[in-house]
Amino acid sequence: MRRIVDRVGLNLSRRLRRSKVELCVHEIELRSSAGYRIAATLFVPAGAGPIPAVVLCPGSDHHRQAFYGRGAPIRASEVASLGCAVLIFDPSGRGESWGPEDFGGAEHQDNVVTAVRYLRSTSKIAVNGIGLVGISLGVACAVGGARRLAESGHPVDWLIDWEGPCDQRTITANQTMNAPAMGHKSDDTSYWSAREAVRHVGHMRAGYLRLQADPDHAQPGELEHAMDMLRAANAGGLPWIRLNAHPVGVLPHEPVWLRSGPLAANRALIRALQSLIHRS
User: What is the pTM of this model?
Assistant: First the structure.
């Protein structure tokens, strides 16, 4: 019953918040480093630039259509209405993109790097005002891509991690969700190391915000993955870290978790994006 009420509330909230900002929507085609066609859509508010930009990274086996759905925690148009460009894409092997399914590995991380580089080549986009949002397992490609960009000398400004599983254990929910493993065993370090965001978050050179509800949207008994990510980010000396509405830089001993459900998730993401886009 609560789930139904939440979804009704989310739809009502979106109607009341509906923006009058005119958005230009462009279907674009990117090319990965391997030469694969990556299908993407760019939302740009009408008016003069340069403006900040956000890349939304879908979770699990989803593609860019996930950012149009009624139950989506965030929609691309909602983000663009905050006054920034938004790029959504089909990771390789999904939707209209070519290449292999990679579940957040090197190929999908390259997709993120390609998207950011495309934005930086676009005259209306502020080169130093680009952020990433990883939705659930989208954190693997978002954080991995952010690390690659940092190591190339061109880090993004910030990254929002919405309830992302951070290591082999949480990605597979203790080996109960085996699609992301693609047949690889839990001790296959060469496969898992690329996909474990906890290994890479401390190397991003970008601000890091973890949004986490209790219970988690996919694994109701799991909250420690949020703290694992924050500890790793803090150890990496990132410009700033934050959990939910806690003060910046604080690793709380008694975390205050977000309320669960799509309405609370949408509100938290909107608040966070408003703050970070303004910060950029």
Answer: 0.96
